[in-house]
Amino acid sequence: MGALDRVDLELLDALADDPRATVVALAERLGLSRNTVQARMGRLERSGALLSYERSLSPRALGFPIEAMISVTVRQADLPRITGELAQLPEVVQAHGLSGQIDLLVHAVARDTQHLFEVDARILAIDGVERTETSLVMDEVIAYRIRPLIAEARREER
Fold first, then answer.
1. From residue 70, how far is each of 84, 119, 144 by CA, in Å?
2. CA-based radius of gyration for the chain
3. What CA dihedral angle connects 62, 66, 69 and 72, to 10 degrees?
4. Which end of the chain has fewer CB atoms surrounding its CB within 10 Å, N or C?
5. How large is the average pLDDT for residues 11-16?
6. Which pairing describes strands 66-74 and 104-110: parallel, antiparallel, or unpaired?
7. What is the DSSP letter of 31?
8. Whole-prediction pTM value?
């Protein structure tokens, strides 16, 4: 996708305000036709500008109050297979490939510390995983956010 224009940025800002807004509600809020909003949403989806529509759920509410960030070092040639195997672990809620000394940063959840120990052991048991280092998440001090970037893009667009 090329650069986002003013309408795209207004649409993204409205979605950041209310991620569950309908196309009709967005059209009314932005003073656009429903067809324009629908077309823009489709283009934003196809371009990858919009991420998953999966609702953000608290692992705590599902019985997983322990969160950890697990740094994983792997044999590089095995990385694609290892990430596929990590995706099979339900306690792995997110993973990022990194540059530098750590290859993967895995966000995992657990019922308790013993369960976390078992999750870490399952990660270590994946062929090609050389080492892990686990850090408990004490608190989320800055939640995932995109609004400041939208505001910055709007300033730059002017």
1. 16, 10, 18
2. 20
3. -90
4. C
5. 91
6. antiparallel
7. T
8. 0.81
